[in-house]
Design brief:
It contains nine helices and 14 strands. It is α/β, with parallel strands linked by helices and 294 residues long. The structure holds zinc ion (ZN). Zinc ion binds next to helix 5.
């Protein structure tokens, strides 16, 4: 997967976004998308024999005037070791080895790739997690001294996480998303200038969180796994792997409401097209009357 670097500005100062794919994942087709609900959707992907094409596992690096922020940490090459999931019990072992396929080498890991673009991992200000699934947390071991931020709701009520595989010193800071921002009821400012905001976008997990970044060229939404590709949002299609489709629906409509007022570029964590969309700053809706500020 081709990485991407986009130079933008924020209030006239330089801002750089890097998309780094930490290897590839493939999921069951009906895990990515299903018209069924609840237990039926789970059964449909468990017994699905078809896998998707290889998908990226994006980590987003934001070089912001207030520091370097990492959104998620990607996968590690351990996922290709068939015994890696055994410590999590037979079910998790069976689930993770039968429902997902991974292609991750040591060189794909985030520490190696950060140093390749000249960023020392010690200089990362904060790691911001979208949720606690392994393909987003498995690079955490490379950041033992960095502050790790997670939505408190995700910490209190995780879904499908594998705590046995967390790094030894995993002490994330739970952030309470308790302020309203435009269309979103549960948000929290991350930077002092208010340009980077954590936004609760439940559906994939109970406390799934996207990160919204204001730039002079428009807003960018690091959408995590709320959607796997942009059309899923436009066409109201839902993943079979969602914990709660009703809440995902609400998250979709909040994002679409916001995108009708502002130029919004949406970057899901496993979307092949995220790189090109960032490169061209291609919004979900085109409209010349968009406001670039709240
Ligand atoms: Zn994921």
């Amino acid at each position: 997967m081709q990485n991407v670097t986009k130079k933008l500005t924020i209030d006239g100062e330089i801002l750089v976004i890097h998309g780094i794919s930490t290897g590839l994942v493939s999921v069951k087709k009906s895990f990515r998308e299903s018209s069924k609900k609840g237990i039926l959707s789970i059964l449909s992907f468990l017994f699905d024999k078809e896998f998707t094409e290889w998908l990226p596992i994006w980590v987003w690096v934001v070089e912001h005037p207030e520091g370097v922020f990492l959104i998620d940490t990607g996968a590690s090459s351990n996922v290709t070791n068939k015994d890696y999931f055994k410590s999590s019990g037979w079910f998790a072992n069976w689930f993770n080895t039968s429902q997902f396929k991974f292609k991750v080498t040591r060189d794909d890991e985030i520490d190696v790739q950060l140093s390749k673009i000249g960023i020392k991992k010690e200089t990362v200000e904060k790691v911001l997690l979208t949720h606690l699934h392994l393909d987003h947390t498995d690079g955490l071991k490379h950041f033992p001294e960095t502050k790790i931020y997670v939505n408190l709701r995700e910490l209190k009520k995780p879904y499908g996480n594998l705590p046995k595989l967390y790094p030894d010193r995993f002490k994330p800071l739970g952030i309470e998303l308790n302020s309203v921002f435009e269309n979103f009821d549960n948000t929290k400012l991350i930077t002092q200038d208010g340009s980077l905001i954590a936004i609760q976008t439940e559906g994939h997990t109970h406390g799934h969180t996207a990160y919204l970044l204001r730039t002079d060229e428009g807003y960018v939404l690091f959408a995590g796994d709320l959607i796997y590709y942009q059309d899923q949002l436009l066409l109201d299609k839902y993943a079979g792997g969602h914990v709660n489709v009703k809440k995902a629906k609400k998250s979709y409509s909040n994002i679409k409401g916001f995108a009708k007022k502002h130029k919004l570029v949406i970057l899901p964590s496993h979307d092949i097209d995220s790189a090109e969309r960032l490169n061209e700053m291609k919004p979900i809706y085109e409209n010349t009357s968009f406001a670039n500020k709240p």
